[in-house]
């Protein structure tokens, strides 16, 4: 497994340090988006600054993407393989459950193309749906 994580990091141009490998492994085991605090708790005792810098590097290189779900805490989730330093190409819907407070990527639910009026240049596109997830609906 470590070799898969190592290969994944190297493929994105990231030096595979022990901490980076631990953080990527932690992300691979998560069913939903997580915060910096979640990573800190899951990998305690670890240095908050090192984790933060790793998350920023992962985001810049296209391993993870950030999600603003209205809770005030940025959440992060794994990207699809085709994301890279030039940009994130996994424009999918995110779902925030009011009940369990989880934010979930819906990669099969793509954001529809948005045509902007002349003169407007899109730099970022997010679509967040809020409601009750299947787990909480039961």
Fold and architecture overview:
This protein is α+β, with helices and mostly antiparallel strands and 138 residues long. It is 33% helix and 20% strand. It has five helices and six strands; from the N terminus they run ααβααβββββα. The chain is globular, with a radius of gyration of 16 Å. It starts with a helix and ends with a helix. The mean pLDDT is 90.
- State the major sheet: 3 strands, antiparallel
Structural class: alpha+beta
Helix content: 25-40%
What best-fitting shape do the alpha-carbon axes yield?
globular
Q: Please provide the count of β strands.
A: 6
Q: In DSSP terms, counting alpha (H) and pi (I) runs of 4 or more, how many helices? A: 5
Nearest-angstrom radius of gyration?
Answer: 16 Å
Give the distance, in angstroms, between the N- and C-terminal Cα atoms.
Answer: 35 Å
Portion of residues in beta strands equals 15-25%
Key words describing this protein structure:
single chain; 138 residues; alpha+beta; 5 helices; 33% helix
Structure described in brief:
The chain has 138 residues and is of the alpha+beta class. It has helices spanning 2-11, 18-28, 36-42, 48-61, 134-137, and strands at 34-35, 64-67, 75-78, 92-97, 103-110, 128-131.
